[in-house]
Amino acid sequence: MDAGGTLIKIAYIKDGQLELRKFPSVKLTDIAAWISGHFTEVELCVTGGKSDLLQKLLDQKVQQIVEFEATCRGVLHLLQGKEQMPEEHVLTNVGTGTSIHIVTKDEHFRIGGTGVGGGTLLGLSRLLAEVGDYDDIIRLAPQGSREHIDLKVSQIYEGSVPPISGDLTASNFGNLAHDPVNLNPPDYLASVIGLVGETVTTVSVHAAMQHGLSTIVYIGSSFIGNEMLRKVVADYTILRGAVPVLLDNGEYSGAIGALLSIE
Ligand SMILES: Nc1ncnc2c1ncn2[C@@H]1O[C@H](COP(=O)(O)OP(=O)(O)OP(=O)(O)O)[C@@H](O)[C@H]1O
Ligand SMILES: [Mg+2]
Questions:
Q1: Nearest listed ligand to the Cα of residue 219
Q2: Distance between CA atoms of 147 and 185, rounded to whole angstroms?
């Protein structure tokens, strides 16, 4: 189990198959009851910030593992069998917040992160567009346009040739100061996704440069069904000269790592 700030992820083996489930962390008591009801004679291992809280609600004996250890182990498992597996990479986990790790053959360590992450996506969407539900955000955002909210480099260099790509964002939300027009909720949602995506990519690309790495593996529930965030992150990573890998089921890395570490 990976008891995160927003979602609890659970990985288990049933009839030889890996099963993956997720639940909102606010329902911790219900989840604990579900776990105790479903898994009686099993070994349990938990990771994540809410490990202690969850453990206290469970009747069974529970092992604990450090979050970053579990996440890296799970990611290496999910990367197995992938063509051109990027053994050495930057690992960016866009959870409630964003955590960045360096993974090499011999070691892995957390180098930092940013408070801009999935929680920012939920919070700013609620504040600006009055849309608080994740599924509504990802459904509505693609109908929006960032044009009147974000300021592009080409708009600053109006009438001349910019020294960098004019299509780059010069200032997230910076256009609102110049060009106040009628905006719809989806426009704000699109720009919030742009802000989150470009911020996590920038921080990740700088980490990659600093450590001489070219591949960035992105995980975290913020990418679930979120085509717009996936595209912003993938395109911007490529534009900055790195290789993005958006790992399928990456949001379950911590839970899978916890499962694999059961003794
Ligand atoms: N069903 C959902 N409900 C709420 N948020 C969701 C949902 N699906 C995806 N998300 C997004 O995923 C984010 C949480 O990602 P993730 O589950 O990786 O984080 P976490 O493990 O709970 O947090 P952290 O690792 O920072 O403690 C949310 O902030 C939101 O943007
Ligand atoms: Mg997490």
A1: 1
A2: 14
